[in-house]
Amino acid sequence: MRYSAFSVFLNALRGNKGWAPAWRSPVPKNRYDVIIIGGGGHGLATAYYLAKEFGVTNVAVLEKGYIGSGNVGRNTTIIRSNYLLQGNNPFYELSMKLWEGLEQDFNFNAMVSQRGVLNLYHSDAQRDAYTRRGNAMRLHGVDADLLDRNAVRQMLPFLDFDNARFPIQGALMQKRGGTVRHDAVAWGYARGADSRGVDIIQNCEVTGIRRENGRVTGVETSQGFIGCGKLALAAAGNSTVVADMVDLKLPIESHVLQAFVSEGLKPFIDNVVTFGAGHFYVSQSDKGGLVFGGDIDGYNSYAQRGNLATVEHVAEAGVAMIPALSRVRVLRSWGGVMDMSMDGSPIIDRTHIDNLYLNAGWCYGGFKATPASGFCYAHLIAKNEPHETGRAFRLDRFARGRMIDEKGVGSQPNLH
Amino acid sequence: MASLIACPHCGPRPKEEFTIRGDAGIVRPAPDAGEDAWHAYVYLRDNPRGRHKEHWHHTSGCRRWLVVERDTMSHAIHAVSDASTEGATA
Q1: Which of A47, A58, A204, A378 could form a Cys-Cys staple with A33, CB 3.0–4.6 A?
Q2: A215-221 and A206-212 as β-strands: parallel, antiparallel, unpaired?
Q3: CATH, domain range A112-178+254-341
Q4: In total, how many domains does chain B have?
């Protein structure tokens, strides 16, 4: 069924009895042309673009939990393409362009809100770094505006401009950045993929990968063996666990990242704002809750929960930026498991096995990349060659000295 | 993360006193060990879901380097020892 204002009206007249489930719950077939391990945002987007753009419809997405239970539902919903480096910028800008047309494309309201992302700067050196970043963005055709102190003050008068240690001097703004309702992204891609013939199989954990003569022939799962022509990993957070099944050692550690929502407040933060002197980012959801987050906890973890010390640190950074937050009560917090790669950038590549593909290492930037990651990964799987905007994300870049180290901290995953 | 780490020198102490360095299993190769060995040392990690040995520094205590065996799923700590007793590692 195509969703529209008319379909809402018509179903209202019929007592809302005409709505059908947005996707099926199929029994797995014996074999698929492509199996995608991981029904998160990236896995579902990959299946969607495989079916829609590349005509590959005999596809299964295997999800160990339920759709939206992993990182696609555990992020702070921010989208942006304010990247500095050559390998990153065109990719994230492709993602931004896909976000801009996404709702019309998959006929689902994902509440894409281009409310603007502001990165605050607090020193002359940071201003110069942001000027460089803004110029790099503009050279790539991405919008960027450097705002001075007064311009930021007019937009966000409640910030602590005269903070003794970190006075706010201005901000780098990307007006096209913003937020998206993350659950709707999972649901929209799932529905779009399902309607084109993709089987989305929930509560189906992969326990082993079967190989014969150097090729993958299928996967052992909690619902039995399923054969496949090509196997695509999209299990970020647990990439190592899956890669271990084919003796592939990855340049990745799994770390926990926490995020938070406050009680509902009247509208007061119109944009996404990030603190330049610590790790803190905040926006206000349409329900009124402040959605915010900070840094990873710093130790390897597969548990989807973090520590109070990090909660305290995030709160301190938030209050340093917006003193009014000290009176806001936090409603809930949660943790997600991140693939922290050795240079802070992702991997979309072939592997040492011919028909096995890898999508991993998203650190904590995976949500904004969902459409482009799905598109580039689908391109790689369908054509066996990388999409032009994703070709820098190679697995062998570490061995070849071609890191994409946006933050410039070297191979220490808990620093990215 | 567990709330307490039982330092072999100081006894059980709050984990905020400790600083993590990372995987205790990686060993620095010889200078002439070749590119593959150095690539593995600098970039590749075991990253198990389950028990994992890590180097932690008792920064706000005895300032000794420790090897902590920790479960990355349950966060339970199974063993702590002084790094010098674990032999030569990175």
Answers
A1: A58
A2: antiparallel
A3: 3.30.9.10
A4: 1
